Amino acid sequence: MEGDCLSCMKYLMFLFNFFIFLGGACLLGVGIWVIVDPTGFREIVAANPLLFTGAYIMLAMGAMLFLLGFLGCCGAIRENKCLLLFFFMFILLIFLAELSAAILAFIFRENLTREFFTKELKKHYLRNNDTDVFSSTWNSVMITFACCGVNGPEDFEAVPPLPHSSLESVTPEACCQRELQSREGMFVNKEACLTGVERFQNRQGCYTVILNSFETYVYLAGALAIGVLAIELFAMIFAMCLFRGIQ
């Protein structure tokens, strides 16, 4: 009976570590995607190093979970006490680090508020200056999501117009409606948009549009994080039980 229980514990340990292995692979992939940043979205919050630190922490955690999941699977199948102890100690450290990161993310969540993005936009945005990474990224976001500013076109009232511009417009070109939402898309009526005709402008703020677009994924990421923490907790319990059961 004891042997059957130990065998069951071994395969449960393997199963939980397999999920840890997959979770680590997912975090590793997301961390690489954020750092490589194919959309340039991170430049919008370039003034806040805390967000970049979070991306590197996610990458490091993903790599460690990936490795430890693999070691845990090997330790369970081979019934190696050294590997199991090594796994338990490091998974405990990762568990505590992830818990601390979750608490810090909750404490510093105000860095992602509407007011923060509005302040950064008014401070750094240079309209159609594509040589400026911040401005170019904001223009790409506004074109892609068919939105304007953080709250709406009124965010650009404090942004000075471009020199040598023939049209004195508060609204940048990126806020003008296009037939296709890409930089190659033709304007519906660029001149009317820049002279203030609202029906040719994208009036909705990007904060609301993007928040609505990613709301489902935020809850999914939160559920995934809770699931990973629960799996790690059970894996530690199984690792210690298996460690004590191996003769």
Automatic annotation (TrEMBL):
Q: Which InterPro entries match?
A: Tetraspanin/Peripherin, Tetraspanin_animals, Tetraspanin_CS, Tetraspanin_EC2_sf
Record's PANTHER family? TETRASPANIN, TETRASPANIN-18
Q: What is this protein called?
A: Tetraspanin
Name of the gene this protein is made from: Tspan18
Q: Which SUPFAM superfamilies match?
A: Tetraspanin
The organism's superkingdom is given as Eukaryota
Subcellular location per UniProt equals: Membrane
Principal place where this protein is found? membrane
Protein family per UniProt:
Belongs to the tetraspanin (TM4SF) family.
User: Which segment of the chain is annotated as a signal peptide?
Assistant: none
Membrane-spanning parts = 12-36, 56-77, 84-108, 217-243
User: GO CC annotation: what is one?
Assistant: plasma membrane
Q: Which PROSITE patterns match?
A: TM4_1 (PS00421)
